[in-house]
Write a structure and sequence with these properties.
Layout lengths: L6 H4 L2 E3 L5 E3 L5 H11 L7 H10 L14 H14 L8 E7 L4 E6 L8 E7 L2 E8 L2 H21 L1
Antiparallel strand pairs: 1-2, 3-4, 4-5, 5-6
Length: 158
Amino acid sequence: MKIEYLIDVANYTYETHTGEIKGNEPLSFTEIQDLENDYNDGAEFPKVLRELLFLAGQSFHLLDHGLCENHQELQQCVRRELEEEGLKIDRPFFAIDIYIGGEQFFFVYLDEGDNPPVYEAVIENQRVTIRDVNNSLAAFLTHLIQLEKEDLERRNSL
């Protein structure tokens, strides 16, 4: 796959607390297609989401699956959380990060072009509130990487 949007993600590495340098862990094309079948009626995901999954779908240090083992479980978890509150998101979407036990998550709609905006969903009081986070998934990921670099520089300067 030719990487057009996520050069920063392709080059991303981080240092663990033991000093080991680690990189991303990808998903196979078959695994990506399985996700597309399950969550986008078999249609291809937006280009930038496919790149993310191809480069770092199994593990990307700056995105969290919470207690879920993988993206498949992550999608099931957020949908179950919505369902338990009697809620749903009517458009096709894909969660990319989860926190606060599944009650909050970042996601993209799958019908907003090759580099869709990122949204945050907050589930509380039997209501889901959706807010814009960034105008593109590529910019969102680049921002996360930049924030981590700045944080590392601050810690190293102390």
